[in-house]
Amino acid sequence: VTVNAPALTFTPTPVATTAGDVETVTVSRSPAATGADLDVVLTVLNADLFSASETAVTIPAGAISATFDVTGLAPGSGALQASVGSYATNLAVNVAAVTLTFSPSPAISVVGDILTVTLSRPAGATGADLDVALASMAPSVFSLSQNSITIPAGSVNATVTITGLEPGSGNLQASIGSYSTNLAVTIGNPS
Hints:
Layout: E1 9-11, E2 15-18, E3 22-28, E4 38-44, E5 50-52, E6 56-59, E7 65-72, E8 76-84, E9 87-96, E10 101-103, E11 107-110, E12 114-120, E13 130-136, E14 142-144, E15 148-151, E16 157-164, E17 168-176, E18 179-188
Parallel strand pairs: 2-9, 11-18
Antiparallel strand pairs: 1-3, 3-7, 4-6, 4-8, 5-7, 8-9, 10-12, 12-16, 13-15, 13-17, 14-16, 17-18
């Protein structure tokens, strides 16, 4: 008896998503090979860039495909491996940077005051939580209420507070993997 390796294909190929968003992927087999369940092991080869909703999917007997989700975590290109026994094939996954915006911009406050800043992402890229690292690039001038925030799935924004420490200016930096953007912050003397 000869057992042939299954030929697996993916849709879409490659996967293109955005950090903080989800793309549904279909893995398919030949219509001529649907006589039994087919267990497909999914291995994320770049876990810092994206995740998969499943570690394995089963294409049921009589069916040609199964689906799973890929969630973008940080910008970059990587691969997901699908394997059945000793057969393996890779799917390219490209995660684009999400564009983050601040409000107000620029941020202007005074020593001793607290200013709430809203960090937003595009409305079309809200399929998953988006973790954003934050840093005061002028820690003697202003501090932040936290060094990271999560914009929840389904939401477009989250907030952080800035506390003015001494007169001056600097940047609040927001980063997701290799992507970063800055908000100009100016702290003045109280009147």
